[in-house]
Amino acid sequence: MNTIxxxxxxxxxxxxxxxxxQWAILQNGLSHNDAIDLIFLERKDAxxxxxxxxxxxxxxxxxxxxxxxxLTIDRYQNIIIQNIKPTIFHSSYYRCVDDNDIKSVVTVHxxxxxxxxxxxxxxxxxxxxxxxxxxxxxxxxxSQNTRDDLLHYLxxxxxxKIQVVYNGVSEDFCKLxxxxxxxxxxxxxxxxxxxNFDFVIETxxxxxxxxxxxxxxxxxxEKKYLNKKLGINRxxxxxxxxxxxxxxxxxxxxxxxxxxxxxxxxxxxxxxxKTGCPVIALNASSVPEVIGETPLLLKxxxxxxxxxxxxxxESPTFFENITEFGNENARKFTSKxxxxxxxxxxxxxxx
Length: 351
Hints:
Layout: E1 2-7, H1 9-13, H2 18-30, E2 36-41, E3 62-63, H3 71-74, E4 88-91, E5 103-108, H4 112-116, H5 119-135, E6 138-141, H6 144-153, E7 162-164, E8 185-188, H7 197-204, E9 211-214, H8 220-229, E10 235-238, H9 243-252, E11 255-258, H10 267-274, E12 279-282, H11 287-291, E13 297-298, H12 303-313, H13 316-330, H14 335-350
Parallel strand pairs: 1-2, 1-4, 2-3, 4-5, 5-6, 6-7, 8-9, 8-11, 9-10, 11-12, 12-13
């Protein structure tokens, strides 16, 4: 039987996040396939990840390396495999295997480091990522836009070994009949500069809208900023929540505001659409590829345009139509389609 070794380093690098959620969906889906044998390489601290806790990996299938480097070093180490001989190696975050006889698959999620980082951090990340891409037998990109970015930064890579497999929205996200839709607006994700969180806050300043914020806990500086711009009673922060709670927030919100200037995929867009939550997003990078043709796609970071879009979703007729559109669009990005896509890739290597 052919064996696939999954490198679960992402569970140690993230407590939560889009990459680890997708990795868990993939592993959970493949665990029901009797045609392949799965082995999982992971550190003890992988159990701190929210999504790792939700999947039941057989203890006898989990391998831990003999050496025990700190995570800051371990994340960049090549994998030296002993006692097992997998057919395929697939790392969750750009690690390589020191065995030319083992076929490797690498998934490229985005190019945020290249676009928004600088200095030593960018250099180390790119060096590891590019090495993994160069050595891989198959490179998977999570969107066509990410594939285009890859060929922009690494134009010498063989196009024939690049394949696009879209991310898949978890079955945890769905419409809830027992949850009442309110008028609160929702923001999901981190608040780094290119996500344009400040644009949302500046737009809502002077309005009566309440904003639910789902992401990392606020810093002291952010609290002061929000208290000044919105007031202490006009925002609520939810941190380190599981999919069940996030699903409830999507179901309660009038709309998701997602004005990011760059996304490798943009998973919250599809999660929200699947729950019947309209999405207002910026027409940039992979977003139009994922969100579909919608009047809620902003042409620019313009306050008047965003307020107009919010006004649109307050109309019952428009809300009903955009909800139906979003639900239909989300069907293009199911977890099954993603799992099947990866299985086709593994089979192409094994055949």
